[in-house]
Amino acid sequence: MSAASEPSAQIVAAQQAAAAALPFGDTADFDDARRGFVAALEPGVVTDADGNVVWDNDSYGFLRGSCPASVHPSLWRQSGLVIEQGLFEVTDGIYQIRGVDLSNMTIIEGDKGVIVIDPLISTQTAAAGLALYRAHRGDRPVTGLIYTHSHVDHFGGALGVITLDDVESGRCPVLAPAGFLEHAVAENVYAGTAMARRSAYMYGASLPRGPRGQVGAGLGQTTSTGTVSLVAPTHDVTHTGQEETIDGVRIVFQITPGTEAPSEMNFYFPDKRALCMAENATHTLHNLLTLRGALVRDPHVWSQYLTEAINLFARNADVVFASHHWPTWGTEQLLEFLSVQRDLYGYLHDQTLRRINQGFTGIEIAEDLQLPPAVSAAWNTHGYYGSVSHNVKAIYQRYMGWFDGNPAHLWEHPPVESGKRHVEFMGGADEVLRKARAAYDDGDYRWVAQVVNYVIFADPDNTAAKELQADTFEQLGYGAENATWRNFYLTGAHELRNGNTGTPTRANAPTVLEALTIDQLFDSIALRIDGPKAWNEHVVCDWHITDEHRTHRTELRNGVLVHYDRTDGDGLPEPQAAVTLTHATLLGVLLRGPGAAHSDAVHIDGDPRTLGRIFGVLDAPDPGFNIVTP
């Protein structure tokens, strides 16, 4: 294992220039991040029942020092703000737990208990946050739970603050925007393995914390690693203007699908003059396409919904808060904050489309698009989590797809074959590395990363290439204002030096899988069919789901698993097998294979080998696939 590289002269100079140019004299964010402080979690560490650390905010204590040359000064500032942790009063009867996970948990005091908004990622961090609140505000029961949207950092800790009995008894309603369950499950299951692997890069999970390692993620410091849970909503919020009263607290909702999440909502507390913006307005430029992978978000409707929130609620609000970062107080100040955020997404969308229609490609537009001075002057528009560069490319992808229209790019060789040919054309690996080292000395790190990548993919055992690439990634990481870019670069360097570190978190938590509908269950199985292996299979099976009183048919043919509900008298051909079982048992069979079907809970009519033929053509996802090497 080689040591991390020193920040180069070029990076040091760039950091000094940024420090001189940015408005560090504006300390309003620091005042707001500390305003209303009640108490900290002491120590700032959360463990599970076995003593394993699932959250450690104290490990970021180094951020209270002066900014080193290995971290962009703007990112150092942002991370220093985000590590403020503990219980904070937002306004009368509204409190937040911040710095105890990637996201915030908000607590609204009602007549008999408290309403919890967004219970973090893990049951352990959510329980610790609620315990901190109760230690200072009294042991009030949870009388309502609200999910602002369908990302795991806003629902995963649900069973840390409530029990299933609380919900089933009606003591605690669970509210979410329409479509929440479908999108929450789909995102964590369908491409969950690949997203989890790339999330390890995005959040720098394998990196040491420190000036040359992980310093945060821009939106929060990192993700907790405890137990993820999911409690299904009991009440859907379906339309803007819908008003609900929970434990005596009036709430008016605004539905915002297609913004930061496909299912998301903002809401207003008219009796408290407080506005919750979910994750639609935070103190960073957010992602239009997160680096871990997701569906491309729509900046056009995002901007429109921010305008709607301003017109519906903001002029009658005294404070705006979100599920990340710190609140903004004062009607004039919050109107400006929301308006700048609105202009940010609207400008990126409109200007990218303008340039697309002039014939420019995504990578070309991303290279030179600049934000308006008044927008770029605001700290909350800086790209700590999203970036102008990858957001512009996401907009291009949303409208135009992967192809830029140049026939030369229509059928390029894949990375390994491309790497071999590039290296041969450039005179062999030694010559490429000689020229790349010269480019490295000149500070042209983007070019070094591109050409050395050819060598690594042509010959993954070339140690010299991997060492140079690791050094290059470190310089690019040191210079990045964006936390997720830094984490990607430094994790790439770490794996080049130390080998594949895999995926530290599970993609599919048990309670998330339990929330899958029958259709989603079979969708997730269909995604694992090894097409060529299944080309010549034709298997028809019926599944009688007793507790849902439905029969679902699966038909495997031409490498595709088709599935649909049957109805009485539909005249369809008889299946090769019919399986009778409950929803929960079906989940077990599909996850564990046909062996799980041999139990008293499963009854099979017809050929029992039918299940084996289906499971025999399933492929297994790989949570540790390579990224920086082939």
Question: How would you explain this protein's 3D organization?
Answer:
The protein is built from 22 helices and 21 strands. With 630 residues, it is of the alpha+beta class. Helix 14 runs antiparallel to helix 15 (445-458) and helix 16 runs antiparallel to helix 17 (483-498). The radius of gyration is 26 Å and the shape is globular.
Summarize this structure briefly.
By secondary structure, the chain is of the alpha+beta class. It contains 22 helices and 21 strands. 38% of the residues lie in helices and 16% in strands.
What structural class results from the helix and strand content?
alpha+beta
- The count of strands amounts to 21
Number of helices: 22
- Overall pLDDT score: 95
Strand content: 15-25%
Apparent shape: globular
Distance between the termini: 20 Å
Strand order of the largest sheet: 1-4-5-6-7-8-9-10
Low-pLDDT stretches are none
- Oligomer status: single chain
Q: Percent of residues in helical segments?
A: 25-40%
What does the radius of gyration come to?
Answer: 26 Å
Largest sheet: 8 strands, mixed
Task: Describe the SSE topology.
Layout (H helix, E strand, L loop, with lengths): L8 H13 L6 H7 L2 E3 L5 E3 L5 E4 L16 H10 L3 E6 L2 E5 L6 E5 L4 E4 L5 H15 L4 E5 L17 H5 L5 E4 L2 H10 L2 H11 L32 E3 L5 E4 L2 E7 L9 E5 L4 E3 L22 H14 L6 E3 L6 E2 L1 H26 L5 H7 L4 H4 L11 H13 L14 H11 L3 H13 L3 H14 L4 H16 L4 H16 L11 H5 L3 H9 L4 H4 L3 E8 L4 E8 L2 E7 L10 E5 L1 H10 L10 E4 L2 H7 L15
Parallel strand pairs: 7-8, 8-9, 9-10, 14-15, 17-20
Antiparallel strand pairs: 1-4, 2-3, 4-5, 5-6, 6-7, 11-12, 12-13, 13-14, 15-16, 17-18, 18-19, 20-21
Helix pairs in contact: 8-9, 9-12, 10-12, 13-15, 14-15, 14-16, 15-16, 16-17
